[in-house]
Amino acid sequence: MDPIVTALEEQQAELATIMDRMTEIEWRAPTRCEGWTTSDVVLHLAQSDEMAVASASGRFPRSGGDGTTDWNGTQSVDEGVARMVERERGIGIVDLRERWTSTARELVRVLDHMDLSTRVPWVAGDLSARTLATTRMAETWIHAGDVGDAIGVALEQTGRLRLVARLAWRTLPYAFASAGRTMAGPIAFRLTSPGGEPWDFLPEEPATTTITGPAADLCAVAARRADPSATSLHGEGPDAANVLALVRTYA
Fold first, then answer.
1. Please, what are the domains in the chain?
2. Distance between CA 66 and CA 157 in Å, rounded?
3. Rounded CA separation 85/51 (Å)
4. Exposed e or buried b per residue across 87-113, where buried means at least 16 C-beta atoms within 10 angstroms of its C-beta
5. Are 222 and 247 in contact (CB under 8 A)?
6. Disulfide-capable partner of 215 in 57, 133, 137, 191 (CB 3.0 to 4.6 Å)?
7. Nearest CA-CA partner of 234 in 226, 222, 243
8. The model scores a pTM over 0.70
9. CB atoms within 10 A of CB 132
10. For the segment 29-75, what is each residue's pLDDT rounded down to a tens digit?
């Protein structure tokens, strides 16, 4: 199994462990995702994993006209996913857990049996199946943290964060373009892993902006789960403020 698919499977397992201990009341607990309970978060993951399976299997809808998604040219991704959750909110806990479990397993199976260099369609345009697997791992990590935070369970900081940080670094051009900004020059990340090792993400040309600090902090900022000012991240260069404001791991 490719290491990225293995990381996705491991992240799914961590979320499954959290869900195994949840009480009925905890399945209705509010989360840091505004307006969403823990059940809503898991429903969103199931829905987006179903979309990822469709993408990797050549069945991804190019528009929302068939009811598979609620996105069209006039809606943001956030509005689309909110409408999808609203449409199916209220699924029973047992059925919801089974739906997420079966879809998560199917996503790993499909990715494990395909060439990860294959280009597949996704929300923001075509990408490689390898990048799709990485984004699904990152989103599973983000939302596992949302569920854990709601019930007082902290996620373990693992080497999987390297993949999240690398995704955030590689997608900086997309993040800047989406915000209508232009990068002044190449950007480097010089991060410290949870175990204390350096994780450096360096451009081919000399960097004009460098972000340093704990990888866990960078990942939390990229996930929109921490304000940069509340972390130990430090930036030097003309794009430092914009990087910390715009860095992300999702469309």
1. 3-151 (1.20.120.450), 161-246 (3.30.1050.10)
2. 40
3. 13
4. eeeebeeeebbebbeebbebbbebbee
5. yes
6. 191
7. 243
8. yes
9. 25
10. 999 999 999 999 999 999 999 999 999 999 987 544 444 445 544 35
Element at 198 (helix H, strand E): strand 198-201
For residue 15, give Cα distances in angstroms to 38, 72, 192. 12, 31, 25
Torsion of CA 191, 135, 146, 54, to 10 degrees: -170
Summarize pLDDT for 179-228 with one digit per residue, the tens: 999 999 999 999 999 999 999 999 999 999 999 999 999 999 999 999 99
Q: Residue 251 has what pLDDT?
A: 60
The token pair at 52 is 């990822």
Q: How many whole angstroms separate alpha carbon 25 and alpha carbon 49?
A: 25
